[in-house]
Write a structure and sequence with these properties.
By secondary structure, this protein is of the alpha/beta class. It has a single domain, classed as Alpha-Beta Complex (Spore Coat Polysaccharide Biosynthesis Protein SpsA, Chain A). The strands form five sheets. Strands 5-4-1-6-12 form a five-stranded mixed beta sheet, with helices on both faces. A five-stranded mixed beta sheet has the order 10-9-11-8-13. Strands 2-3 form a two-stranded antiparallel ribbon. A hairpin with a 2-residue loop joins strand 2 and strand 3. The longest helix is centred in the middle third of the chain and has 12 residues. It starts with a strand and ends in a 9-residue tail after the last strand. The C terminus is likely disordered.
Length: 259
């Protein structure tokens, strides 16, 4: 299985921190956000290659990072050619670009590379294997304002994803879908069809939204917290939350976790 990591955003709300540095490589608890995600996924033993799709501005940063990890895992960095936030391809077109550029086939785990989690994604991989279908996750969000600014979803009693909508005006339920997706090889091959059919291309959830209308998609309740770093204040809150963590274990020490 391949793991496609979305890292082509420009994180403009985090400037100046990310003006010349990619958000997934910012450190939390003394470790890059992306390292945390990959080390966790590695523990499942299901992924044989990681593909990081990024932009032209940050490609060298990721290549340097990947080179330092070459002894431990197979990482491919793909440059989507964009140089500004205004010219970005959008997450769905980045997925398409990586698949077609590298000729990727088979099952695929697609994740945003800039989220900090306090749970293991291996449970999600196991869930997808058990279902044998494309899968997403969901968590309850009771704050209407946050719900309206997120990827809201409807989940059936059997756990099947009924519908999904990015930034809905009137959310149909209190479930949100985070940017972590498992696509079967058959569904991953449908991305060109999805875009031609009018699937939104900016947010990654748009593909899952289209997919649940054209295939069977199940959803697992997220078993912990997700920290979405969107601005300097939220980054500082995460640093405070993880202050004193060494190799994933809370030590209670007061340490400097800045980049």
């Amino acid at each position: 299985m391949k793991c496609l990591i979305l890292a082509a955003g420009y994180a403009t709300r985090l400037y100046p921190l990310t003006e010349n540095y990619p958000k997934p490589l910012l450190k939390v608890g003394g470790k890059a956000i992306l390292d945390r995600l990959i080390e966790d996924i590695d523990s499942a033993g299901a992924v044989n290659e990681y593909v990081v799709v990024t932009n032209h501005r940050f490609v060298r940063r990721f290549e340097e990072w990947a080179k330092a990890k070459a002894h431990a895992r197979h990482i491919t960095v793909v440059d989507d050619g964009t140089t500004t936030n205004a010219t970005r391809l959008g997450a769905v077109r980045d997925i398409q670009f990586a698949i077609e550029h590298l000729g990727l086939e088979g099952d695929m785990l697609v994740i945003a590379g800039d989220n900090v989690l306090d749970f293991s994604l291996t449970r999600f991989i196991e869930f997808a294997r058990e279902k044998g279908t494309s899968c997403v996750m969901h968590y309850r969000e009771t704050d209407v304002k946050r719900l309206a600014g997120s990827c809201a979803s409807e989940i059936g009693e059997d756990g099947r994803l009924i519908s999904l909508e990015e930034k809905p005006v009137n959310p149909k339920a209190e479930w949100c879908t985070p940017p972590f997706y498992f696509y079967t090889g058959a569904d991953a091959a449908k991305i060109r069809e999805a875009i031609a059919d009018g699937c939104g291309t900016d947010a990654p959830g748009s593909l899952a939204a289209w997919m649940c209308s054209h295939s069977v998609v199940y959803s697992m309740e997220m078993p912990g917290k997700r920290y979405d770093i969107g601005d300097p204040e939220s980054y500082e809150r995460v640093l405070q939350e993880y202050r004193g963590i060494v190799d994933g274990t809370k030590t209670g020490q007061k340490s400097d976790l800045s980049t």
